[in-house]
Amino acid sequence: MNLLQIADTVMTSPAVYLLIFAFTLVDAVLPVMPSEAVIVAAGAFAATGEPDVLGVVLSAALGIVAGDHIMYAIGSRITRRRPASKLAQLIARATPLLRRRGGNLIITGRFVPGGRIATTAACGATHYPIRRFTVYASIAALLWATFATMIGFIGGTAFEEHPIYGVVAGIAIALSVTGVTELVAYRRRRRRPQTLPTP
C-alpha cells in the first residue's frame, strides 16, 4: 500500500473527524502534533468529495476550542500556586492589556506561531472572563480552521486527479503564510524601543 492509498483510506474513513479533533486538541496544548498539515490534507481530499469540508472545519474548530480551554485552566493555576514568582508579576502587568484588547489578542494569537499558547495561558492566568474567552476563542478557532481547510481545498481542486499534490501544495502555502506572519512579528518586535533596565 503506497502513501496515497494510506492517505485515501484515512481521509475517507468516518474516523477522520475524530482524528482531526484529537490532533487539534493536542496541538493547542503541546505544539508537537502537525495539526495544520492534517487539516490541510483533509481539505485537499475534501475537494474530491470525502471527507465533508464542513465536517473538517467543525471538527478542527472544536478540537482547538477544547485545547484552548485546557491551556486556560493551566494558566489559571500559575498565579494561584506561585503568586510571588516573576512570571506571576509579568502576568499582573499584562492584565490591563488583556482586559482592554483581549479579544483581538486571542484572535490574532491563533495565527501567530507560538502566540496561541502564550495568549490562552495568559488569559487563564489573568482570570480573563471565561465566557468572553470562549466567544473569542471560538471565533479564532473557526477562522483558523476555515483558513487551513480552504488552503487544502484549493490545492485539492487544482490537482483533482492527484490529491497528494494538492496536499503538498496546500502545506507549502500554509508554511509560507506562517513564515511571513512570523517575519512581520519579528520585525515589529525589533522596531519597538527597548526599555533600559533600572540600576
Describe this structure in words.
- Belongs to the DedA family.
- By secondary structure, the chain is mostly helical.
- The chain has one domain (about 5-190).
- The protein is about 80% helix and about 0% strand.
- The protein has helices at about 5-10, 15-30, 35-45, 55-80, 85-110, 115-125, 130-160, 165-190.
- α4 crosses α6 and α5 (about 85-110) packs across α7.
- The longest helix is centred in the middle third of the chain and has 29 residues, at about 55-80.
- The chain is elongated, with a radius of gyration of 19 Å.
Number of helices: 8
Pattern of helices and strands: HHHHHHHH
Name the poorly predicted regions. Answer: 194-199
Mean of all residue-level pLDDT scores: 78
Q: Tell me the total number of β-strands.
A: 0
Q: Major sheet: size, sense and barrel closure?
A: none
Count of domain modules: 1
Helix content: over 70%
End-to-end separation: 66 Å
Rg on CA atoms, Å: 19 Å
Basic shape: elongated
Layout of helices and strands:
Elements: H1 3-11, H2 16-29, H3 35-46, H4 53-81, H5 86-109, H6 115-125, H7 130-158, H8 163-191
Helix pairs in contact: 2-3, 2-4, 3-4, 3-7, 3-8, 4-6, 4-7, 5-6, 5-7, 7-8
What would a concise description of this structure say?
It is found in: Cell membrane. It comes from Actinoplanes missouriensis (strain ATCC 14538 / DSM 43046 / CBS 188.64 / JCM 3121 / NBRC 102363 / NCIMB 12654 / NRRL B-3342 / UNCC 431). 79% of the residues lie in helices and 0% in strands.
Task: Give short descriptive properties of this protein.
VTT domain-containing protein; 79% helix; cell membrane; transmembrane helix; mainly alpha; membrane
